[in-house]
Amino acid sequence: MRAVRNTTHGGPRLLKVENIRVPARGAGEVLVEVHAAGVAYPDVLQSRGEYQLRVPLPFTVGSEFAGIVAECDDDSGLAVGDRVLGVAGHGAFADYVVTPADRVLPLPDEVDFITAAGMPINVLSAEFALGERGRLRAGETVLIHGAAGGLGVALIQQSKILGATVIAVVSTPEKAQLAREVGADVTISPYNFLEEARRLTDGRGVDMVLDPVGGERFTDSLRSLARGGRLLVLGFTGGSIPTVRVNRLLLTNTTIIGVAWEGLMPVSGVSLPDQWARLLPHVARGAVYPVISDVLPLHRADEAVAALDERRAGGKIVLELRPDVPIPAEARD
Q1: From CA 126, how far away is CA 70, in angstroms rounded?
Q2: pTM for this entry
Q3: For residue 49, what are the contacts with CB-CB under 8 A and spacing of at least 6?
Q4: Cβ-proximal residues to 135 (8 Å cutoff; 6+ apart), any chain
Q5: From residue 315, how far is each of 35, 220, 331 by CA, in Å?
Q6: Which of 128, 301, 304, 328 lies 20 to 30 Å from 318, alpha-carbon distance?
Q7: Segments in the chain forming alpha helices (H)
Q8: 187: Cα within 13 Å, side-chain hemisphere
Q9: CA 118, CA 114: separation in Å to the nearest integer?
Q10: How far apart are CA 296 and CA 301, in angstroms?
Q11: What is the spatial distance between Cα 112 and Cα 273, in angstroms, rounded to a whole number?
């Protein structure tokens, strides 16, 4: 089978397609015929050997997929031929992937494989962040950094479902338009977001900041919180890991909350099936969906991962392995 391999830890541009054997599944695992694979930030880290889940070289990269069950245990709750989506610690950029059965989720007939492949990590991470960790309540105001990225889109959509007012932080007019299209109430620039957040809340501040970026804006994110507000740390795509002067937390009763969705880890504290069951009604009615910007063939996986690494992706990039689903012309390369 075809597989996108990391052989050097040299980064996205050194990933290459090789022919390898179909992986064998063990008890409790599912073999899935991959029809589409989403490109996610863990793939960038995997290409350099920087992800927290360490895999010996060489290995097949890729974390999220959609396709058809090829093999499974009788007691898995799945059947051969089922349409599914899911996540794997690695190995999704290939014709077949093996992953534990609790990481494989049923795919409604109305959702195509390309759309499905763009959902798992971002949609489930957002649900975990807003619910389990953030406890977002109706009527609260949230500020979302990186709001036009895949995770940002999922956070906007689910914040609106929960009844929040959303302030989206975006860097270009095109990203601002995208954020508004998926539900943001207002968009602001990262260059003066603190002043704008205070102005939009009449000086009170926001109830929650969702930050997958980190870096230099972190301190101003803390300053943008209302008394008793929460800042959720979802990652550091900005590159640097900020430090915190904790006296501010004491003076304003604010909280910094780490968000580490464990869906890709060998041992996970979250139930993906339970998360998916809560999200399915919203997925089915079209309230939760990825914004697909590019659909590329498998042999261009290196370009796709590099685009995400270099922050050139204007939405979700998906790799198409089996072109049996109609793709919108505007999304096809």
Answers
A1: 29
A2: 0.91
A3: 6, 9, 57
A4: none
A5: 20, 26, 10
A6: 128
A7: 41-48, 113-117, 120-127, 150-161, 173-181, 193-200, 218-223, 247-252, 272-284, 301-309
A8: 21
A9: 7
A10: 7
A11: 19
Region of 191 (left: φ > 0; alpha: ψ -120 to 50; beta: rest) is alpha
> Tens digits of per-residue pLDDT, 27-82?
999 999 999 999 998 999 999 998 888 899 999 999 999 999 999 999 999 999 99
pLDDT in tens, 198-211: 999 999 999 999 99
Cα 19 from Cα 94, distance rounded (Å)? 9
For 145, list phi and psi in degrees, rounded to 5: -80, 155
Question: What does each C-alpha distance from 155 to 108, 182, 207, 296 come to in angstroms?
Answer: 22, 10, 15, 25
Yes or no: say if 61 and 43 are a contact pair by the CB < 8 Å rule: yes
Domain borders along the chain are 2-119+289-331, 125-258
Q: Which two tokens mark 303?
A: 């370009």
276: number of Cβ within 10 Å: 20
Q: Is 9 left (phi over 0), alpha (psi -120 to 50) or beta?
A: left
Number of H helices, E strands in the chain: 10, 16
Into which CATH architecture does domain 2-119+289-331 fall?
Answer: Alpha-Beta Complex (3.90)
Protein fold of 125-258:
Rossmann fold (3.40.50)
Other beta carbons less than 10 A from residue 264's beta carbon: 23
- Return d(Cα 86, Cα 84) in angstroms, integer: 7
* Both structure tokens of 299: 């042999």
Q: Show the tokens assigned to 90.
A: 């690695």
